[in-house]
Design goal:
Elements (H helix, E strand, L loop, with lengths): L10 H15 L4 E7 L5 E7 L1 H6 L8 E3 L8 H4 L4 E3 L22 E8 L2 E9 L7 H57 L5 H46 L8 E3 L2 H17 L3 E5 L7 E3 L1 H17 L6 E8 L3 E8 L34 H10 L3 E7 L3 E9 L6 H7 L3
């Protein structure tokens, strides 16, 4: 109840409250909270409970702990489950020791905090006078899950507010260039240059103003698109949590949602003068699909391809029929995605702070939504990418088997 009342609090206030309450609920002496890096390769220490900070005398404290080299306290991540150690001083091959001045641990319990199947954080408590048990474990898990739910929502709201502010600034900048251009043209009409040299200076000045105005327009477009992606992500996540995502399946041609997505993104294609190549056969087997959801998925993927493709770059859409599936490939020659992040691109990403900020669009990334839509269609999706070469997104959606009596009669009511 107290956590739910902290919607207006800062991230630090929320996390401080959570780990202090975790200490009280489990009758511990200390507690801590660490966030996972986007690639799940490192734990980033976020905060310690007040009592722990008073006892800690470590000089040159570390804040980033690679999972590969962490000791016993990192087992919650390695084993992907809660770990209770009721005799921390007992010899254990998993222990790596701790630095001089570190708080002495007698008992320890920590839990991984999941968002879907991804570990996003680790919370721990220590030095309870009695052994930790299942009741303590439940208290810690429930508290931290609620804390993460609140953090996730707050980060969405903060990102939405930040993006809205940035869009407003970009619009004001564009309006200022419009005024400068209008004033310049007005003055130019009133005082025509008497010499060829004066005309050349005026033309150069107008060209500079036009270039600045074009960049301001691109900035407005960028921020408006980013705001739209955040809103879409916010709405989808909220509806998903409320169990309100509904699908309207019917036999459709996959080219229909693909063409819809092109209509939604054609302005971006033209703005960046991108070469768009389409290889879509005219006659394709039907799929069992939700046209609106598939349009959303392809729009997100096209949007991403266009954003990371350079000016006058190339984006290709290739559709092919396989034995049981329709195979769609969206290919660009953009910046590419770091290899270590590819396995995590379809998981939910949230910005926690500057240390854990993901380099691949963070909260506004729609790849998570795309994965959910592909799964709902009993299909699959994967990414192949190379830095400075480009990215390919592969989607497979099963074809309708019209030889199946069940599908024909029951599913489609034909």
């Amino acid at each position: 109840m107290k956590l739910n009342q902290m919607t207006g609090s800062s991230l630090q206030e929320i996390t401080d409250f959570a780990h202090e309450e975790a200490v009280k609920l489990t009758k511990s002496k200390l507690g801590y909270l660490a966030f996972m890096s986007p690639d799940e390769g490192s734990l980033i220490m976020h905060s310690w409970s007040t009592h722990a900070m008073k006892e800690c005398n470590v000089k040159d404290r570390k804040f980033i702990y690679p999972i590969e080299t962490t000791g016993l306290w990192g087992e919650a991540v390695k084993q992907r489950k809660p770990i209770i150690t009721n005799n921390y001083q007992e010899a254990n091959p998993l222990k790596k020791g701790y630095p001089e001045g570190h708080v002495k641990l007698t008992r320890h319990m920590n839990v991984p905090i999941f968002d879907g199947n991804r570990i996003v954080a680790v919370a721990g408590v220590g030095n309870k006078e009695e052994d930790y048990d299942e009741a303590d474990l439940r208290q810690l898990i429930l508290l931290m899950q609620e804390m993460w739910r609140l953090i996730r929502r707050k980060q969405m709201e903060d990102a939405l507010q930040k993006s809205s502010t940035e869009l407003s600034k970009a619009e004001m900048e564009l309006k200022s260039f419009d005024r400068v251009k209008a004033e310049f043209l007005s003055n130019k009409e009133e005082t025509q240059p008497a010499t060829e040299h004066g005309k050349m200076i005026d033309d150069e000045t107008l060209e500079i103003i036009n270039d600045l105005e074009k960049k301001a327009i691109e900035n407005v477009i960028h921020h408006s698109q980013r705001l739209r992606r955040i809103v879409d992500s916010f709405i989808y996540t909220s509806m998903e949590e409320a169990g309100k995502i509904e699908y309207n399946f019917k036999p459709i041609d996959i080219s229909v949602p693909l063409e819809n997505s092109l209509v939604d993104t054609i302005f971006m294609v033209e703005e960046k003068e991108i070469v768009l190549e389409k290889t879509i056969p005219k006659s394709l087997p039907l799929i069992n699909g939700d046209e609106e959801k598939l349009t959303d998925m392809f729009t997100v993927l096209m949007d991403s391809a266009i954003r990371f493709t350079p000016y006058k770059g190339k984006v290709a859409i290739i559709v092919d029929e396989e034995v049981n599936y329709i195979h769609i490939i969206l290919k660009d020659n953009g910046a590419g995605i770091p290899e270590k992040l590819i396995p995590h691109m379809f998981q939910r990403f949230y910005e926690i702070d500057s240390q854990t900020k993901n380099n691949s669009e963070g909260i506004e990334s729609g790849f998570y939504i795309c994965k959910k839509i592909a799964d709902a269609h009993k299909g699959s999706i994967k990414i192949e990418s190379k830095i400075n070469v480009g990215t390919e997104v592969h989607i497979w959606i099963p074809k309708i088997d019209f030889s199946s009596k069940k599908q024909l009669g029951e599913e489609y009511e034909i």
